[in-house]
Amino acid sequence: MQAGHRREEVRAALIDAAERAITARGLGGLKAREIAQEVGCALGTIYTLFADLDELILEVNRRTLILFDAWIAGVPAPPDEADPVAELVRLARAYLAFARANPLRWRALFQHRLGEERTPPDWYVAEQGRLFHQIERPLRRLRPDLPDAERQLLARSLFSATHGLVSLGLDEKLTALDPVALDAQVETVVGAVARGLLTEQPQPGDGPA
Amino acid sequence: MQAGHRREEVRAALIDAAERAITARGLGGLKAREIAQEVGCALGTIYTLFADLDELILEVNRRTLILFDAWIAGVPAPPDEADPVAELVRLARAYLAFARANPLRWRALFQHRLGEERTPPDWYVAEQGRLFHQIERPLRRLRPDLPDAERQLLARSLFSATHGLVSLGLDEKLTALDPVALDAQVETVVGAVARGLLTEQPQPGDGPA
């Protein structure tokens, strides 16, 4: 038990150190040797406590996803909470604000790629799923007619579109915008998607002939 | 004149070689030494004919932008050419198809970053502008009421949102979709943005009170 306890402590300390490194210097600033040194363990210890460096990075990314989840909860709800268009815009703007506030650890979510044949572990996929679920909820109110599978796809697509707006808007010289303009664009485009989806909703009486 | 002519030939040969390298192996596969060897010039020649490797990469990226421009022209127009919603969807699907067909040189457009203080040269910005212009045209028909500056911003945002759909849809394990589903999602989301923008259009009679 003692050994197991100690193991868990070192494991957590390594994740803490990796989290600090990624937050301060980005994914490229994560060096296994430095992390081990900071925690005061041998370099090899990392590879006994984690399958590989990828697993350590995914643990940090999980924390980033949890942080974003908490961030969303802290953003005030729209005046009309029941309005799914306003809620979708709120989520998109929360994403933009989070990316702005946590640029390096946010980027690490996307820069990190597992090798060709590997898929992320179930616990990581589940954590991602919780975020997509935040988008599915207002989508269900917006378009109760959509089958679950279609709504799930659409939630991912809305996320991807928002990610494109945020990612190019913040980072690329291609489309870099001043902060106020970028906020307004996210609101305009995500609001338009939501209203556009509403126009597709079958009207009462549309049913099969 | 003779020397100038030869200079231009070597310069073009270097761009050709860099283009082949990026197309085959991506931006990371571009090695100045190999390019020089292929063309049969000294390594130093690259740096007399181009300000730096960045300029060589931008020349390849310019060709990629021109290739995409030609690609768009080759995609059949929607049945109702005058319908701006269908035209915006056509452009977005053309972008997806182009990214699929040219994955490495397409990625190079976004992977390549100039140093912090540098901005892309005017000729490159102009080439990007021509592409945004393709989006502005149907936007003008969709929303003739929008001021030019707002339409230009919106064209860039539509591009960014589409880029997010394409980029995460093709590449990330996060949201990777089968090709048919991804095509459908691009159509759904971009179509919804366009229809949503229409719902915002001031109606005749709305004018100032």
Q: How would you describe this structure to a colleague?
A:
The structure is a homodimer of 209-residue chains. The first copy, chain A, has 209 residues and is mainly α. Helices cover 74% and strands 0% of the residues of chain A. In chain A, α5 (84-101) runs antiparallel to α7 and α5 (84-101) crosses α8. Chain A is elongated and about 70 Å long. Chain A starts with a helix and ends in a 9-residue tail after the last helix. The interface between A and B is large, with 40 and 40 residues.
Q: Termini separation of chain A (Å)?
A: 69 Å
The residue-averaged pLDDT of chain A reads 89
Q: Specify the oligomeric state.
A: homodimer
Number of helices of chain A: 9
Sketch the topology of chain A as an H/E string, one letter per element.
HHHHHHHHH
